[in-house]
Design brief:
single chain; 205 residues; alpha/beta; Rossmann fold; seven-stranded mixed beta sheet; 7 helices
């Protein structure tokens, strides 16, 4: 290997991180403000808190590398579509040489009411296709935060639910959603700084 190649290899190596935080969503402006993209919105808030930009394009993701309260983070928004999120997450863990227990995933949940968030230390994917993709790639051993986006009519058919998550919040819902997203970002910070049990006790009530 040439000296130049060795130098390039050193400078392109990713930094060491303590946690990999992934906010789920769909890429593209058309999806930016939809319910399905609340994970992206939480990731953006965390990146601002870490004073980091999504400047790194790697592992089929846009990544902001920074730190919050001394915890070194890679905050990622996968650029695969939602159903293929696992492919990006697997590459992110490989990039940072991280195990699944270093992973924290934030995503929308149609089984949880708008305004509610829930944190779990590990578990199955539920009905979320993005989570199914991730669990199929890396297993169930990672923390996650669910953000409620359930429709007002809980008996909606599956086709209606798909349409529901791909539409923006209504004017009446927007204020609640903004508060919920801010609370979710705060909950992730507490989990990263003080531990998952502390975050669950504080935010799952």
């Amino acid at each position: 290997m040439s000296r130049l190649a060795k130098w390039l290899g050193r400078t392109s190596a990713p930094p060491r991180v303590d946690r990999v935080v992934v906010g789920l969503g769909n890429p593209g402006d058309g999806y930016a403000n939809t319910r399905h993209n609340v994970g992206f919105q939480v990731a953006s808030r965390l990146a601002k808190r870490a004073r980091a930009d999504f400047a790194v394009k790697a592992a089929e993701s846009r990544i902001a590398e920074g730190a919050i309260d001394g915890v070194r983070l890679a905050i990622a928004r996968p650029q695969t579509f939602m159903n293929d999120s696992g492919r990006a997450v697997r590459k992110l863990l490989d990039r940072y040489r991280a195990d699944p227990d270093a992973l924290f995933v934030v995503y929308d949940d149609v089984d949880l009411p708008l305004g509610k968030i829930r944190i779990r230390e590990r578990g199955g994917p539920g009905t979320h296709n993005g989570m199914r993709s991730i669990v199929s790639e890396v297993g169930e051993g990672f923390a996650r935060l669910r953000i409620g986006v359930a429709p007002a009519e809980p008996t909606a058919e599956m086709g209606d639910l798909i349409e529901h998550v791909l539409t923006p919040f209504s004017a009446d819902e927007r204020a609640i959603a903004d508060q919920q997203i801010a609370r979710a970002a705060e909950a992730v910070e507490v989990a990263l700084r003080d531990g998952i049990q502390k975050a669950m006790a504080t935010f799952n009530g």
